[in-house]
UniProtKB/TrEMBL annotation:
Species: Tepidiphilus baoligensis
Alphabetized Gene3D superfamilies for the sequence: 3.40.50.450, Winged helix-like DNA-binding domain superfamily/Winged helix DNA-binding domain
A Pfam family this chain is assigned to: WHD_DprA
Protein name: DNA-protecting protein DprA
Name of the gene: dprA
Residues in Smf/DprA SLOG domain copies: 84-293
Origin: domain of life: Bacteria
Family membership: Belongs to the DprA/Smf family.
Domain spans labelled DprA winged helix: 305-363
Length: 369
């Protein structure tokens, strides 16, 4: 997409002038519904605004334009990678219109065209288990290989793994919807990941440039994740996880909700189990999602093996048999195997190096295959 043209620049200025004023989003929407485009709202006699919307709204519109913020945003738009999508834009993603409070403007870094492609959201715990991270990465990679855009929130844990998995696919695309301004990266350690996402997808924010991360921003971000995607896959989630908010919003919007089950002993599986009890579809492989949308599988998508099919391991490995599929502490494993501490440590080490076993917090071990 080319840089903003002169005529578009004036339209962008009008939208920025309107949306950057001290007015709540709900009031902004009411003003647009009543008077039309932002320039029409700003041109209204203050007496009319005061009579219909009150003195506080009239005062906000009468105030001097937020010139510094407007010029900063217009300068930001000079970069060919930066875009401002408004409700009046043909490129505005129509999926978001399912929201009663669809953002009036979206700040986008990357390719806005990514926002209108078939998409699946992948969300989950920030402190996910190694198995959860691998599941997120594998499902995202498989979906991206089939032509789906993977949507997530750039957070630690499952979000980052989902973005990375999508980027591992040839020509994979991913979108990060963030709870800061589009010119900021949170958490800061994901700066490199954010750059890669912008090259192969888009970073999207409804918040003005320069906006720092605030706790109340993330539920707002979650509703955009839920609305943009055709379905939401929850990988791991505690019972009070923000991922469950995303899943609930997706269900309310008529989107599909999927969840990966886990061990009954894993606290991060409880949120997924709750979703399944409430009607979410249990998934073990990517085809479990795709069979719900035969009309949405993109043309030319490449079929790949299930992302959860593990590499082969010796079926009769006695230590893996003793481990089972639930986390086990070292002492319990000693009791099950009858091995000494030294012998057990010596047997665990090559399995850890091979990736067949992972060490969890609290001195517990879990097989991954």
């Amino acid at each position: 997409m080319p840089p903003v043209r002169p005529e578009d620049r004036e339209e962008a200025r009008s939208w920025l002038d309107f949306t950057l004023r001290r007015l709540s989003p709900s009031v902004q929407r009411k003003l647009l519904a009543r008077f039309g485009a932002p320039d029409s709202v700003l041109a209204q006699p203050l007496s009319t605004v005061r009579a219909e919307f009150g003195a506080e709204v009239a005062q906000a519109l009468a105030a001097a334009p937020p010139s510094e913020a407007i010029e900063t945003a217009l300068a930001w738009l000079d970069d060919v990678r930066h875009h401002l999508l408004t409700l009046a834009d043909a490129a505005y993603p129509r999926n978001l219109l399912a929201l009663a409070d669809a953002p009036l403007v979206l700040y986008v870094v990357g390719d806005p065209g990514t926002l209108i492609r078939p998409a699946v959201a992948i969300v989950g715990a920030r402190r996910a288990t190694p198995g959860g991270l691998e599941n997120a990465r594998a499902f995202a990679r498989a979906l991206a290989e089939r032509g789906f855009v993977v949507v997530s929130g750039l957070a630690l844990g499952v979000d980052a793994a989902a973005h990375e998995g999508a980027l591992e696919a040839e020509d994979g695309r991913t979108v990060a919807i963030v709870g800061t301004g589009a010119d900021r990266v949170y958490p800061a350690k994901h700066r490199g990941l954010a750059h890669r996402i912008a090259e192969r997808g888009a970073i999207v924010s409804e918040f003005p440039l320069g906006t720092a991360a605030q706790p109340y921003h993330f539920p707002r971000r979650n509703r955009l994740i839920a609305a943009l995607a055709r379905g939401t896959l929850v990988v791991e989630a505690a019972p009070e996880s923000g991922s469950l908010i995303t899943a609930r919003l997706a269900a309310e919007l008529g989107r599909d909700v999927f969840a990966i089950p886990g061990s009954i002993h894993n606290p991060l599986a409880r949120g997924c189990h709750r979703l399944i009890r409430e009607g979410a579809k249990l998934v073990e492989r990517v085809d479990d999602l795709l069979e719900e949308w035969p009309d949405l599988v993109p043309t030319g998508a490449v079929a790949r093996p299930s992302p959860t099919t593990p590499p082969p391991v010796a079926a009769d490995d006695p230590l893996l048999t003793a481990l089972g599929h639930d986390p086990v502490d070292f002492d319990t494993l000693m009791q099950r195997t009858g091995l000494t501490s030294e012998a057990l440590s010596a047997m665990l080490l090559p399995l850890e190096l091979d990736g067949a076993v992972v060490r969890l917090p609290g001195g517990r071990y879990q097989r991954t295959r």
